Amino acid sequence: MPETIVKLQDVAVFQNDNLVLKDVNLEVKKGEFVYVIGKTGSGKSSFMKTLYADIPLKQGDASVADFDLKQLQEKDIPFLRRKLGIVFQDFKLLPDRNVNNNLRFVLKATGWTDDSKMDSKIEEVLTKVGMKTKGFKFPHELSGGEQQRIAIARALLNDPELILADEPTGNLDPQTSVEVMKVLQDINQNGRTIVMATHDYALILKYPHKTLKCDDSKMFEVIQKAM
């Protein structure tokens, strides 16, 4: 049996003091790819932020990568996030340094010290996303799709158990979205678990996976034909 990476029982998700999702029950197994869909304001991003402890869990029980979110202390949040790879819609690359140094910054921040090990890790993740030759480029010299590939490479640096992708194609044109999606598919097929919030239904139809919908304060699984 594949191990469980995410488990939520009777969870309520809040945005500030507003309840956006209630009675969320969910289990994500190792190696799964799960979409989270729903209209703007339906709670997708708040749900994702709850998983990486940007929004504290106030109600229900949840574990993510063996961390109990209910018991999670603030000092332990960085340790949870080291087990996660987080990909945002707006890339969040540091504009004042090149790709290699963007990635090196993350490695140093998470405790890496050996330069040669850092170099080989950076090369490994850039190769995985098809960006091996772009390490000396600055973010402004890259297209949106290339920047998102770098963001995915950054998410892979610490061999995460789970990748949380929050609207990773939201700022990209349809063709580039497909290219980024292919990268995520490859990563998933190599055994990584991915939970991806999206409103891009064309991608969901092209790459079908388990799909959870946020609607009317509820989260439920939808069968593709019903979407």
Automatic annotation (TrEMBL):
Highest classification ranks of the organism: Bacteria, Pseudomonadati, Bacteroidota, Flavobacteriia, Flavobacteriales
InterPro entries in the cross-refs: AAA+_ATPase, ABC_transporter-like_ATP-bd, ABC_transporter-like_CS, ABC_transpr_LolD-like, P-loop_NTPase
Keyword Lyase: no
Biological process according to GO: cell division
SUPFAM superfamilies the record matches: P-loop containing nucleoside triphosphate hydrolases (SSF52540)
Protein name per the record: Cell division ATP-binding protein FtsE
Sequence ranges assigned to domain ABC transporter in this UniProt record: 6-226
PROSITE patterns noted in UniProt: ABC_TRANSPORTER_1, ABC_TRANSPORTER_2
One Pfam family in the UniProt entry: ABC_tran
Transmembrane segments: none
